[in-house]
Amino acid sequence: MAAVESLVEKTALESPNPHDVTPLLDQTPVPSIHRMEEEGVAITWKNLEVTTDAGRPLLRNVNGIALPGMMTALMGASGAGKTTLLNTLLARNTKGLNIKGEILVNGQKIGKGVTEVSSYVQQEDIFVGTLTVGEHLYMQANMRLPNDWTAREKKERVDAVTRDMLLENSVGSRIGVPGVSKGISGGELKRLAFATEILADPPVLFADEPTTGLDSHMAMIVTKRMESLSGDQGKTIVCTIHQPASEIFELFDRILFLAGGRTAFFGTPPEAVSFFAKCGYGMADHTNPADHYIKQIAILPGYEEECKKKCTYICDRFAESALNKRMDDEMVEFSQKRPLEQINKVGWCTLFAMLAMRYGKDNLRKSSMIRAKLVQKVFMGLFIGLLYLQTNNRSQDGINNLKGVLFYFCSELTYSTIFAIQTYMPGDFPLLAREYHDGVYPVSAYMCAKIASYLMIFSIDGAVMITIAYWMVGLPSVGRFFLTLFICLLVEISAGSMGIAICSMAPSYAVAVSITGPLLTVLSLSGGLFTNVDAMPGWISWVQYISWFRYGYESLVVTQFVDPMYHSVPCNQTSCLNNGAEVIQSLHFSESNLHGNLFIMFVYSIIVYAMGYCALVWRVLASR
Ligand SMILES: Nc1ncnc2c1ncn2[C@@H]1O[C@H](COP(=O)(O)OP(=O)(O)OP(=O)(O)O)[C@@H](O)[C@H]1O
């Protein structure tokens, strides 16, 4: 508190001299610091007003310009509106906000099309942590660089970016997930995020707090890289930055200070020194300039009124300054329409192949997904095999056992598939939404890749369990074995479609699991073993038709009980099932339904996948 008080004493309550009319503030022209670039992209924003739905103003009449070959920093105290301005320029995360004003990209109003000419390094680094740096860049290069580039050209681009971002020594390292699995360092993560975004060589790069969480050395490296992208490669760079060190502050070509949603300053770092000095808030020697200026325009707890007055004073002085006039002139100049080159798009099949490779590798490297499930399936196969060892004999007990085994096949394949999908898939959403809005791939490519990657592993481990249990139980013939495998595969595909659809619709893992539990109970109860499917009350009997348990179980029962060994079954009880046909009848199943069931499960999966896809598209679009 003492520190706050002394700060307020020294700054907030210090009265500036209102008669101090200086060249900077009295419209004396200041030198222009740019030249009209032939290439590159200029972004201008004029009279930006952003208010919440509740009417709270977040940005008030903010103007500015970001030019090719320059690095522009948006600075201000916490809550000043930096991220709001960045999001507004990018047309991202603007739900619940009303935006007025004009944003021009090379003189053109392109709205969300800004994504087509820019990349965005977001504050939070999100990657698929099981991949290595090299694998990630390889896949990203294939998803972001045009199809007509050769593999060699793409590799050369990856190598160049890897060198540029000082990632050569990390190429073989796993990326990892901070706090979950060990991987590359925070600085490497940030440089990897930059490497990913500059692969396609976009003319504009936005970055939100690129140095947050990095030590000063790493922050310097990252800022130097941005400087070389703008200075050497002519890119337009706009970033928000939180109280940078003096050396970093000096690297920026332009600084936009925001105070309470208004423009407090726009100019070069040396111009900031003289502007704030002329306002009466000069900086003592050996002070961090960013720290100092941000303190002048911060709203300090307990001194809100004084601080607001001071911010208003500084913003008003800037509004009438020659710096503001220069900005207006530049905005007029750069509002002229100039051509815009869009980043090339990549073909759907390439995107699908890269995503399938990404998620396939991810699945294979998740020990709980592959090894644990495989061990579980081997164990369950052996357990069922031992429990019902050679139990498939022509007896009444054998019939009961076989009915149990077949229903267990449906249950085990369903539960393990759905819950494995639900453990991991909800975690994909932030990366999917980000990459979709970055224009990297459509939701359809993600959805198909995800389905392909899951089908591969679930088919294998399901087949392992069925193979072990089938022969141990003593079920008949190679032909029936393969038909059983095929039916089980369709059961898994149906269950997988429901798992993926629920994850696509539900906003979180918790919601997905809460929906799935009761749903599976309902579907399994109406599957035919526990309920007489013909005798279900009319108002609820429709449930069996959305239950793959019903189609799968009926198909498995028919496959086994039409076998010649069930043509007659000995009876030593009062009430018996004398043959396979009677078993099928007793369950109210029909032999003639077999092929129809297989077809229905196939179509069912496609319909449920399509429903999941629509829900996912809706959620992704709503997340912009
Ligand atoms: N969608 C929104 N709805 C309501 N208020 C919002 C919304 N977005 C931002 N705000 C509010 O606008 C103000 C400015 O937020 P913003 O995130 O732009 O600040 P900032 O300068 O980036 O701060 P920080 O450095 O702390 O990230 C904050 O008070 C924030 O609560």
TrEMBL record:
Residues 1-25 are annotated as: Disordered. It is a multi-pass membrane protein. Residues 43-285 form the ABC transporter domain. The keyword Ligase does not apply. The keyword Membrane applies. The chain crosses the membrane at residues 372-390, 451-473, 479-502, 509-530, 598-621. SUPFAM superfamilies: P-loop containing nucleoside triphosphate hydrolases. Belongs to the ABC transporter superfamily. ABCG family. Eye pigment precursor importer (TC 3.A.1.204) subfamily. This is ABC transporter domain-containing protein. It comes from Pristionchus fissidentatus. The lineage of its organism: Eukaryota, Metazoa, Ecdysozoa, Nematoda, Chromadorea.
